[in-house]
Design goal:
Length: 110
């Protein structure tokens, strides 16, 4: 079955919420979330065996906060290594998509 770009992006968006309820250090949370993302990349149908984690996850929680405040990761398409997706809760998009400028991805303007 073939999945649309929107379905694939929704899967990445969902992954960007991994660990929102973890309690622990940024390092411990990042290790758990990395394991979860890698598992999803090899088991979720819309992304299965087509993408690989190349950076992250970067996790940050403010002192005295109950939940992670920021999470970001980068995946690359295995068949076309020029295609990347930046995953973070506020914005999702293909970096090679002319409809979504890169600065908007990082500024969270989507």
């Amino acid at each position: 079955m073939s999945y649309s770009k929107n379905q694939t992006m929704l899967a990445f968006a969902y992954m960007s919420y991994y660990g929102f309820d973890l309690i622990g250090s940024d390092k411990c949370n990042a290790q758990k979330i990395e394991k979860d993302i890698k598992h999803a990349l090899t088991s979720w149908a819309p992304v299965k065996d087509e993408w690989e984690l190349v950076w992250g996850p970067g996790v940050f929680i403010f002192d005295f906060a109950l939940f992670d405040d920021n999470l970001m990761y980068l995946v690359r398409n295995i068949k076309d290594p020029s295609r990347y997706v930046v995953g973070y809760p506020e914005a999702m998009g293909m970096l090679d998509d002319n409809d979504i400028p890169v600065f908007e991805l990082f500024a969270g303007q989507l």
